């Protein structure tokens, strides 16, 4: 039962352009959503989050959008930089409980 | 300010053995969660500890057990190791709020079961 899905295993983007990573969920009780970035041999690093009462949250080059009716969220990175190349995980939680993760999307930013 | 630290970094065990992994949370955090990450997958929740008690548990067998100490550090124990237990084990800490659940992860322990 995969409650959080990232349907794109990988994404390749040119430096300076926008990267859009997508995530779908099935559990309507999720009330908090997060994006993590992971480099090889490191643990996931928290990037940005959004609560279910909002539809957008920005932090510098990173913006997360939430569409509750579609049970869909996305992460926009503008402009993309080579250092952004990593695996990106979408995660969700309900009432502060466990994080449920997607399988991840590998982002490659080409210079 | 030290982040989440895990030890050891790597571990090699044989089937049937037992293993203990350790985690020190980020300063100021009171909640520790453990996750298993298999190759090519996202982290899977094992269990969470708060106030030295197991608050929530994922779909893992009883061979997986844990403990939280008064200083909030935590251990993950796995008994009767199987080949399928080979994975990256991640510890995450957070400050319990009952809602906003930003967890900060350590670098993980890579367990190989031969």
Question: Which features would summarize this protein structure in a list?
Answer:
heterodimer, A: 111 residues, 0% helix, B: 114 residues, mainly beta, four-stranded antiparallel beta sheet, 50% strand, globular
In short:
The complex is a heterodimer of chains A (111) and B (114). Chain A is built from no helices and eleven strands.
Overall description:
- The complex is a heterodimer of chains A (111) and B (114).
- In chain A, 0% of the residues lie in helices and 54% in strands.
- Chain A contains no helices and eleven strands.
- In chain A, the strands form two sheets. In chain A, strands 2, 4, 5, 9, 10 and 11 form a six-stranded mixed β-sheet that branches.
- In chain A, a hairpin with a 6-residue loop joins strand 4 and strand 5.
- Chain B is an all-beta fold.
- Chain B is 0% helix and 50% strand.
- Chain B has no helices and eleven strands.
- In chain B, strands 2, 4, 5, 6, 9, 10 and 11 form a seven-stranded mixed β-sheet that branches. A four-stranded antiparallel β-sheet of chain B has the order 1-3-8-7, with no helix packed on it.
- The termini of chain B are far apart.
- Chains A and B meet through strand 4, strand 5, strand 9 and strand 10 of A and strand 5 and strand 10 of B.
Tell me roughly what share of residues is in helical segments of chain B: under 10%
Q: What is the alpha-carbon Rg of chain B in Å?
A: 13 Å
Largest sheet of chain A: 6 strands, mixed
Number of helical runs of chain A? 0
Tell me the β content of chain B: over 45%
Q: How big a fraction of the residues of chain A is strand?
A: over 45%
Mean pLDDT of chain A: 96
Q: What distance separates the N and C termini of chain B?
A: 37 Å
Q: Report the major sheet of chain B.
A: 7 strands, mixed
Poorly predicted runs of chain B: none
Query: Termini separation of chain A (Å)?
Result: 38 Å
List the helices and strands and how they pair.
The complex is a heterodimer of chains A (111) and B (114).
Chain A lengths: L3 E2 L4 E5 L4 E7 L6 E7 L6 E7 L4 E4 L2 E6 L4 E6 L8 E8 L6 E2 L3 E6 L1
Parallel strand pairs in A: 2-11
Antiparallel strand pairs in A: 1-3, 3-8, 4-5, 4-9, 6-7, 7-8, 9-10, 9-11
Chain B lengths: L4 E3 L2 E4 L5 E6 L6 E7 L6 E7 L2 E5 L6 E5 L5 E5 L8 E8 L9 E2 L3 E5 L1
Parallel strand pairs in B: 2-11
Antiparallel strand pairs in B: 1-3, 3-8, 4-5, 4-9, 5-6, 7-8, 9-10, 9-11
């Amino acid at each position: 039962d995969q409650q959080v899905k990232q349907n794109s295993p990988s994404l390749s983007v040119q430096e300076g352009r926008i990267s859009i990573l997508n995530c779908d969920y099935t559990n309507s009780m999720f009330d908090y959503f997060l994006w993590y970035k992971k480099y090889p041999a490191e643990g996931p690093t928290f990037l940005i989050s959004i609560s279910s009462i909002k539809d957008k949250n920005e932090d510098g080059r990173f913006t997360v959008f939430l569409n509750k009716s579609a049970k869909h969220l996305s992460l926009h990175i503008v402009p993309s930089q080579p250092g952004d190349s990593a695996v990106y995980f979408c995660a969700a939680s309900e009432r502060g409980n466990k994080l449920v993760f997607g399988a991840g999307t590998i982002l490659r930013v080409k210079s | 300010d030290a982040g989440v630290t895990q030890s050891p970094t790597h571990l090699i065990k044989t089937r049937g053995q037992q293993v203990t992994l350790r985690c020190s949370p980020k300063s100021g955090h009171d909640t520790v969660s453990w996750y298993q990450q298999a190759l090519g997958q996202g982290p899977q929740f094992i269990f969470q500890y708060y106030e030295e008690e197991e608050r929530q548990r994922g779909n893992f067998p009883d061979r997986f057990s844990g403990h939280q100490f008064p200083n909030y550090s935590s251990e993950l124990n796995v008994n009767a190791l199987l080949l399928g237990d080979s994975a990256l084990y991640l510890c995450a800490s957070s400050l319990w709020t009952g809602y906003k659940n930003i967890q900060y992860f350590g670098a993980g322990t890579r367990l190989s079961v031969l």
